[in-house]
Amino acid sequence: MDEKSGTHDHPRSALNLRLFLASFGLVVCAALAILSAWAGITALAVSLAVLAAVAVVDIVVLGIRIARRRRGGEQHTLFE
Questions:
Q1: Which spans are transmembrane here (predicted)?
Q2: Spatial CA neighbour of 30 closest among 50, 49, 56, 55
Q3: How far apart are CA 28 and CA 37, in angstroms?
Q4: 3-state helix, strand, coil in the chain (%, to 5)
Q5: pTM over 0.85
Q6: C-alpha span between 26 and 60 (Å, rounded)
Q7: Closest Cα to residue 50, out of 73, 69, 26?
Q8: Per-residue pLDDT tens for 64-76?
Q9: CA 27 to the chain's CA centroid
Q10: How many Å apart are CA 48 and CA 55, to the nearest integer?
Q11: 59 near 22, Cβ under 8 Å?
């Protein structure tokens, strides 16, 4: 097995896919938080805003990890 593709003990993470999913979660949570706040459902709005903030942190971390991979000369598709 190729070392770059990972092993059973040290699998590779699909960073680009995770970045896409975190971005989707950010958009959905932010939109629903705004709608919830507009509807007066404060507890739901705050919960969704916290989830959106978590998605932002995840996007930043994933961006750093993707940049590290690219500096190493590795190219990846969405699902690698």
A1: 20-38, 44-64
A2: 49
A3: 14
A4: 70, 0, 30
A5: no
A6: 12
A7: 26
A8: 988 888 787 766 6
A9: 11
A10: 10
A11: yes
